Amino acid sequence: MQKHSTSNPFNIVVIVAALGYFVDIYDLILFSIVRLPSLRAIGVAESELKNAGIYLSNMQMLGMMLGGIVWGILGDKKGRLSTLFLTILLYSIANIANGFAVNLNQYAWLRLIAGFGLAGELGVGITLVSEVMTKETRVWGTSIVAGVGVTGAVLAYFVAEWGWRQAFWTGGVLGLCLLVLRVYVHESGMFDKLKE
After folding, report:
1. Closest CA to 19 of 186, 140, 181, 184
2. What is the distance between the alpha carbons of residues 99 and 37, in angstroms, rounded to a whole number?
3. pTM of the model
4. Fold adopted by 12-195
5. Which residues pair with 6 in a beta bridge?
């Protein structure tokens, strides 16, 4: 395969992609856990909780739909790594800001931005893993990404106990920590060849 391919399923690309998916799942599960307490905290009436929750969920899903399209195109044109940096940076900033939301419209727009950022994590991360690994070990790499990712749900459950604002801030900080790790990841050989 490419000269940049690796047979080690525990290489830095797999680890970083797995942690990216971990943050992705953390946020999606966290939002479902803290949605009602957070809406009450910003003053949404009990009679409006259902509609407000649907509104927030729709905004997040809209962000993810748009992000999936945009990040897929950017990943092919600008490279997987630069796209991954942008997705996690956008997600992190949106989540930290989400912890400061004081009304429903702020909350909704920040969920849209966070969803937009989250949409690129799995798709671009798995693409990068697939491109840097050999065909014999690719299945192990993607399995590790998926396995580590779902444990984000467990962390979300425990962190939600700290309070909804703190939980969003934690997600943002996790994303920023992930950015630091990504400094050590190199673009895939396959993308470099396509670019040439």
Report:
1. 181
2. 13
3. 0.80
4. Growth Hormone; Chain: A; (1.20.1250)
5. 133
